[in-house]
Amino acid sequence: MMTDTAAAPTAGQSRVRTLARAMVLGTATLGLAACGGGDDRPAADLAAAQISTIGVNSYLWRASLETVSFAPLLQADSAGGVLVTDWYTNPSNPGERVKLTVSILDQDLRADALRVAASRQVAQGGTWVDAPVQAATVQKLEDIILTKARELRRQAVG
Fold this sequence. Notes:
By secondary structure, the protein is an alpha+beta fold. The chain has helices spanning about 10-35, 45-50, 60-65, 135-155, and strands at about 75, 80-85, 90, 95-105, 115-125, 125-130. It is built from four helices and six strands, in the order H-H-H-E-E-E-E-E-E-H. Strands 1, 2, 3, 4, 5 and 6 form a six-stranded antiparallel sheet that branches. It starts with 10 loop residues before the first helix and ends with a helix.
């Protein structure tokens, strides 16, 4: 003869479980009640509303995003100030592709707070081969980003 070891709980066991659940629920409710409410909350002010988690100059960051928006992004780290694009091929020149890295180095809107690096490849014999990037190209990208950043700042301030 077989016996069932998973018998239904007795009335006493059921009461103990119910009491245990009630104690856990009560403790959780009291803990949550202590977290909120009351008049001890700090008052919201304009300065707190303007705090952001971006670690670099926000105008340079936004201008950089706009400037490289033509290419797909591989990495966008606003805390570290780094944007890395994937390879971009201009449809009008399919034998050439570029990849950009934009680094924002400071929280101030200054020319030396921005660094752009570009890689270029050309198609040769069915493979991509590294090719030089003209310094003027990188300088032009930096100028575009700086001009946009200054424009964004003027719009925000004025």
